[in-house]
TrEMBL record, chain A:
Cofactors, names only: [4Fe-4S] cluster; [2Fe-2S] cluster; [3Fe-4S] cluster
Keywords noted in UniProt: 2Fe-2S, 4Fe-4S, Iron, Iron-sulfur, Metal-binding, Oxidoreductase
The name this protein goes by in its record: Succinate dehydrogenase/fumarate reductase iron-sulfur subunit
Family: Belongs to the succinate dehydrogenase/fumarate reductase iron-sulfur protein family.
GO biological process: respiratory electron transport chain; tricarboxylic acid cycle
Highest taxon of source: Bacteria
GO molecular function, one term: metal ion binding
Gene3D superfamilies: 3.10.20.30, Alpha-helical ferredoxin
NCBIfam families per record: dhsB, PRK07570.1
Coiled-coil intervals, chain numbering: none
Species this protein is from: Limnovirga soli
From TrEMBL, chain B:
Protein name: Succinate dehydrogenase
Transmembrane segments: 21-41, 61-81, 109-129, 156-174, 195-221
GO cellular component term of the entry, any: membrane
Protein origin, superkingdom: Bacteria
InterPro entries assigned: Cytochrome_b-558, SQR/QFR_C/D
This protein's UniProt keywords: Membrane, Transmembrane, Transmembrane helix
Gene source species: Limnovirga soli
Gene3D superfamilies listed in its UniProt record: Fumarate reductase/succinate dehydrogenase, transmembrane subunit (1.20.1300.10)
Record SUPFAM superfamilies: Fumarate reductase respiratory complex transmembrane subunits (SSF81343)
Amino acid sequence: MEHQNINLSLKVWRQKNSNSKGAFETYKVNNISTEMSFLEMFDVMNEELITEGKDPVTFDHDCREGICGACSMYINGKPHGPWEANTTCQLHMRAFKDGETIVVEPWRANAFPVIKDLMVDRSAFDRIIQAGGYISVNTGNAVDGNSMPIEKDKADASFAAAMCIGCGACVAACKNSSAMLFLSAKVSHLALLPQGDPERSTRVINMVAQMDKEGFGACTNTGACEATCPKEISITNIARLNQEYLLASFTADK
Amino acid sequence: MTWKQVFTSSVGKKLTMGFTGIFLILFLVIHAGLNACIWANDGGEMFNAGAHFMGSNWVPRILEIGLFAGLLLHIIQGLMLEMSNRSKRATGYAVAYGNGGSKWYSRSMGLLGTIILLFLVLHLSDFWYPNRSSQGFLLGEEINLFTKMQQEFSELWVVIVYVLGCISLGYHLAHGFQSAFRTVGVHNKRYNLMLMTLGYAYSIVIPLAFAMMPVSMYLGWVH
C-alpha cells in the first residue's frame, strides 16, 4: 500500500484513577503516517498534549513487538483492533481511513480495574499463575533437552497453548468477562507435558479457585475469545481444562 | 476438594449445565419419538396408548421425577450463572464487539432459555397437568390427549406460540448441543467436527418435528 499521511479523530477513555468516574474525550490527530503503529500514533498525540501542557493519555506497553502482552486497547469494538491475530502495538495506521473516528477503550472487567485512562490492573492473571501455573524441579545441572521423549503432536499442542502472552484480550472480548481461555492455555501447556504431570490435579483445582476468587465470569463457549486472541489460542484448550477439572475433582481423595 | 467446592466453582457450575443439558437433549428424542405417534393417523389410538403407558407405568413415572429434577437444576443454575456473569462487567463498552467473534444465539442462551421456560409453563399447563391430574392423583376419568391436542391446536395463536417456542429451542440447541460437550471436556479433534455436525442437525430436526405437530393438527393433516 502506498505511504500516505492521514488525519483522524480519536475518542479516548480518560479516567484519573481507579476511584474516579471516567469519560470519553475527543482528540484530533493530524498528519499521521500510515506506516506508524497504533502506539506510535498515541506517542505523537501525547507529545502534542505535553507541549500544550495537558495530561498525556496513559496506556500500557512494553516490547512493542507483539510478544509481551502489555498493550491492551479495545479499539472500535474489538480488543487489539481490527486485524486478526494481532496485538495493538503491531496494528498499523494503514488499517484506518483518512478522516475516520476511532473509539479507544480500556479492557472492561471488574477483575481488571482501570488504573488510569487506558491502563488496567491485570495482576489477577499473575495471582492465577501463582496458584498453580508452575512445575517443581530439582535444582542442579540442567537436564539434557532430549532426555525426555515427548510425542510431536503433544509438544506442538503444548507449544500452541504456551504462545499465550497473558494480554487479557480474551477477558475483554468475553461477554462474561471470563478468563477461561487464558487459564486453559496455562493449564494445557503444562498438562500436555510429562514435566507438568506431578502437580496436574492440584494445579487445575487451585487455578480455577483463584480465577473465581478474582471475579472473572464463567465460560459459555461463545468463541469470542478465540476470535480476538492475538496468539490464536484455540478454545479446544477450554474443553481440555474442563476435562482436567472433571478428572481432578472426581478422583480427589476427599 | 469437597463436592461442595466442585459444584460451586465456575467450572463445576458449568458441568451441572452441561450434564443436565445432555440429559434434556436425550429426553427430547424420547418426547419427539412418542409424540410422532400422532402421525399414525389412526384417530389417536397409538398416541393415546403411549400417553396412557407414560402416565400409568411406574418406570416412566420415576424417570419423570429425574426429568423434573434435571430440568429445575438446568433452569435455576442457568439463571444464576446468567446473573452472575452479567455482574462481572460493571462498566460496559461504548462499542460492542457484536457478531464479529461469536454467534448472536451463543451470547443469548439466557434469553432463549427464558423464552423456552415461559413456553414450558404454558405447555405443561396445556397438556401435562390436565393429563396427569386425570390419570391418577386426582382420581378422574383419563382424558383423551389426542382430542385435547386437536382442540388446543385448532386456534391459530396457540400454533404460532408453539412454533415460536420451537424456534427458540432450535437456537438454544444450536449452541447448547456443542457447548454441553465442550463443557464436559470433549476436546478431541476427531469428535469436534462430529459433534458440531450432529449438533446442528439435531437442533434443526428435533424442533422442526415438534413444530410440525401443532402445524399438522391445525392444517388437518392428522385425523
